[in-house]
Amino acid sequence: MQVIATAGHVDHGKSALVRALTGMEPDRWAEERRRGLTIDLGFAWTKLPGGERVAFVDVPGHERFVPNMLAGVGPVPAVLFVVAADGGWMPQSAEHLAAIDAVGIRHGLLVVTRCDLADPGPATRQALGRVARTSLGAVPAVAVSVVTGAGLPELRDALERLVAALPVPDPASPVRLWVDRSFSIRGSGTVVTGTLPAGTVTVGQELLLTPSLRPARIRGLESMNEPVASAAGVARVAVNLRGIPAGLPARGMALVAPGRWTLTRLLDVRLALRDADVTLPPELTLHIGSARTQARIRILGPPGDSPVARLTLRDPLPLHVGDRVLLRDPGSAAMTIMRATVLDVAPPALGRRGAAAAAGRELAAWPDPPSAAVLLRRHGFLRAGTLAAMGAAGGPEPVAGDWLADPGHWDSLRGRLAEMVAAHARRDPLAIGMPPEAARAALGLPDRALVEALARGPASSEGDDPPEPPRGQVRLEDGYLRPARSPEARDPVTGDSVPSLPPRTAAAVKAVLADLAGAPFLAPDAGRLRELGLDARAIAAAARAGLLLRVAEQVVLAPGAQAQAARILARLPQPFTTAEARQALGTTRRVAIPLLEYLDRAGITQRLPDDRRRLRLSAPWSTRARYGSARGSPRRAGRPGRRRSPARQGRCLPAGRSPAGGSPGPAGASRQPDRPARIPRRGAGTGPRRAGCPRRPSRRAATSARPRPGSPSRCNRSPPHRARRTGGSR
Ligand SMILES: Nc1nc2c(ncn2[C@@H]2O[C@H](COP(=O)(O)OP(=O)(O)OP(=O)(O)O)[C@@H](O)[C@H]2O)c(=O)[nH]1
Ligand SMILES: [Mg+2]
User: Fold this and answer.
1) Spatial CA neighbour of 181 closest among 327, 20, 42
2) Whose CA is nearest to atom 4 of ligand 1?
3) Fold classified for 2-165
4) Does 19 contact ligand 1 (Cβ within 6 A)?
5) Which end of the chain has less Cβ packing within 10 Å, N or C?
6) Of the bound ligands, which one is closest to the alpha carbon of residue 96?
């Protein structure tokens, strides 16, 4: 089916023509019939000789009812432009034609009526010339008389050709049905009618009624007074709604597909002025579909007959970029109607000085309709759903989740993030890194996931592993952003990156290690640490760098001290007391107690109910244990292909169990580097990893290095990719 509107000056015979074509009365109101004057929209339909069904929306011609006329022609694809042979071209002929041009209707017929009263020739010639200069272009003309019936068969033939030439809209387009009438039927409830320009409505479908966005389910559908299960545009439809109280819907509201339109009060448009020098009033009436509202207008530039303007609407409307809207100044006779094309339905604020002129310059160069690429260039980021709701198709692949980014903006952000993280590290070399939230705020990004995606770098082409960060950029490790290191800054044995310490801290660490060289378990006391300038942050940084083993807040040993302790304790009769351990280790209770607790949590020792301990593991503590002690994250430990120290693997094994069902110990472990069963979830076996695991810079974590028994540390709360690597034990 097709829907065609009438247009033309008052009393030129539009309603009489519709009546003659359809046999239906388009003037619905008694007052209209009494006065012989159309006031509101009328609806009628017929079948053409070829079988095509066509509905007419009959509009009023009187200048007082131009808003009603605009509501009628707003959603239709074609018009019957009516001029009376005995009347000729008249003011509302011009106004209606300007409206048709502004709305952008491209198909129509010129019908010269009342040809029994005057020669249709002059009126036809006059009208064709004017029509040709609008969006309608060159149209066929037919002269008719509803009194004599002359020309009506020719008109029906011309209508058939017109209808056959009309484009078929996409039935999958998002629905936007502008309401032109609303009433209620006893037993059925609320009914709205409208011209569906594209898309499909179906019984049972849920739509939203704008501007309230109240959900409305389609209970029943009729098209041309016949019940239908679904209707695809173009169609006249009457929709019986569930969930909408009678009296709520009104002309100008719309039923829209959820998530497919942007309900907005603010939009940027390109105007089409007839005269570049025209002075626009600050407020105009905006029409689209059957809706009209007041619009405050601010010209952004550039000068000329197609400037860009920002409109602020009194009522929000469901819009897409590329929509044609009509602007009208009801108070002015000279400048009556203007066309505008919507460029942006969610424009950014014009806060800073010069922003308006810059926006004008940028938007002036946009294509019509705007593409996803230009919208992204302006906004930097848009969610895929937001872009679709703006009415722009396509767009690049998402950079994170459903976020799309302008490629140029994305690249520059990556550079800015790298600079920011590097500056943060220079400012505070002992810091664990820059929190992503701080980077998000500083870069003005809408979502933290974007910071993480920037830090991850370009997507890897192979495998599931996150790609290595590009050289000179940023890495996100243990929840913090740090400058990526060059390959030269890696541990030659493990391949792990070695964070550098400020020279003063490095010297202090060196002094501590020298102190410990002769007595590995006589940890420097608080006074010595203070003297060296090793405060809690410096100790944490050194521990992160794998240069010290921090067993408690103020108790630091050399890396690998726990393996050395295990070897010494293994020689004691099992189980052993704290005093025996202290003696064997040659240390004081200040060090022995936190060290033994550390070994408990590491799964190296087991504390018995009588407070004695025994060694849990039968692993021979190799001299390479230092590489597994404090350096490297648990993530690295599980990464296939990485070298892992036997010590690290061995101490994760619960006593008496072997990963492959064979003999326990590091040999079996090293053959099965990825068996998840070997990485206990929490508690026993996690200690040494924890020792090397950077912590959040919370007060508690910053001031206490003591792992809490049974409580998950950062290391235990592994990121998802670690869970994947570590397999099915999670
Ligand atoms: N003689 C003659 N009269 C006509 C013809 N067409 C319409 N009329 C008369 O013209 C007058 C106006 O016709 P309408 O159809 O009401 O005009 P309209 O364009 O719908 O007017 P509005 O809706 O008020 O803008 C009526 O009295 C019609 O009977 C025609 O072909 N010949
Ligand atoms: Mg009429």
Assistant:
1) 42
2) 114
3) Rossmann fold (3.40.50)
4) no
5) C
6) 1
Ligand nearest to the CA of 17: 1
Q: Which ligand is nearest to the CA of 12?
A: 1
Pick the atom of ligand 1 nearest to 145's CA.
Answer: 31
> Is the minimum distance from the CB of 14 to ligand 1 under 6 angstroms?
yes
Q: Which of 30-34, 199-203, 382-386, 670-674 has the lowest mean pLDDT?
A: 670-674
Structure tokens at 328: 């009208």
| Phi, psi for residue 513 in degrees, rounded to 5 | -65, -35
Say if residues 603 and 687 touch (Cβ distance below 8 Å).
yes
Closest ligand 1 atom, CA of 12?
19
- What is the rounded CA–CA span in Å between residue 387 and residue 382? 6
Distance (angstroms) between ligand 2 centre and the Cα of 59 equals 6
Q: Closest residue (by CA) to atom 8 of ligand 1?
A: 13
Whether 25 shows a pLDDT value over 50: the answer reads yes
Does the beta carbon of 285 sit less than 6 angstroms from any atom of ligand 1?
A: no
User: What is the secondary structure of 484-546 as a DSSP string?
Assistant: PPPGGGB-TTT--B-----HHHHHHHHHHHHHHHH-TT----HHHHHHHT--HHHHHHHHHTT
Q: How far is the CA of 26 from the centre of ligand 2 (A)?
A: 8
CA 151 – ligand 2 centroid, Å: 20
Q: Which CATH superfamily is domain 262-395 in?
A: Translation factors (2.40.30.10)
Q: Quick check: helix, strand or coil at residue 129?
A: helix
- Beta carbon of 38 within 6 Å of any ligand 1 atom: yes
Instruction: Quickly state the pLDDT bin for 617 (edges 50, 70, 90).
Output: low
Neighbours of ion ligand 2 (CB under 5 A): 14-15, 38
Average pLDDT over residues 116-122: 96
The pLDDT, as a whole number, for residue 297 is 95
Residue 93 CB less than 6 A away from ligand 1: no
Using pLDDT thresholds of 50, 70 and 90, give the confidence band for residue 394. Answer: confident
For ligand 1, atom 23, the nearest C-alpha belongs to 38
Q: Which of 10, 14, 33, 59 to probe ligand 1 with, by most ligand atoms within 8 A of CB? A: 14
What are the backbone dihedrals phi and psi of residue 89, each rounded to the nearest 5 degrees, phi first?
-70, 130
pLDDT digits (tens, 9 = 90+) for 441-494: 999 898 989 998 888 776 544 444 444 444 447 888 778 888 776 444 444 445
pLDDT digits (tens, 9 = 90+) for 632-675: 333 333 333 333 333 333 222 223 333 333 333 333 333 232 23
Task: Give the closest residue to 219 by CA, choosing from 183, 260, 190, 254.
Answer: 190
Two structure tokens written together for 482: 């740090």
Which residue CA neighbors atom 9 of ligand 1 most closely? 13
Secondary structure string (H, E, C) spanning 618-655:
CCCCCCCHHHHHCCCCHHHHHCCCCCCCHHHHHHCCCC
pTM, rounded to two decimals: 0.71
Pick the CATH number of 503-615 from 1.10.10.10, 1.10.1740.10, 1.10.287.70, 3.40.50.2300: 1.10.10.10
532-584: pLDDT as tens digits: 888 888 888 888 777 889 988 889 999 889 889 999 999 999 999 999 999 99
Name the CATH superfamily for 176-256: Translation factors (2.40.30.10)
Question: Ligand 1 in contact with 39 (CB < 6 A)?
Answer: no
Overall average pLDDT of the 171-195 stretch: 94
Alpha carbon 604 to chain centroid distance?
49
Could you identify the residue written with the tokens 């066929």?
Answer: 140
Annotated domain spans of the chain: 2-165, 176-256, 262-395, 407-489, 503-615
Beta strand 176-178 with 254-256 is antiparallel
2-165 and 176-256 in the same fold: no
**Is the four-CA dihedral 492, 497, 498, 502 of positive or negative sign?**
positive
Ligand 1 mutation pick, 6, 9, 15, 62, max ligand atoms within 8 A of CB? 15
Identify the pLDDT of residue 644: 34
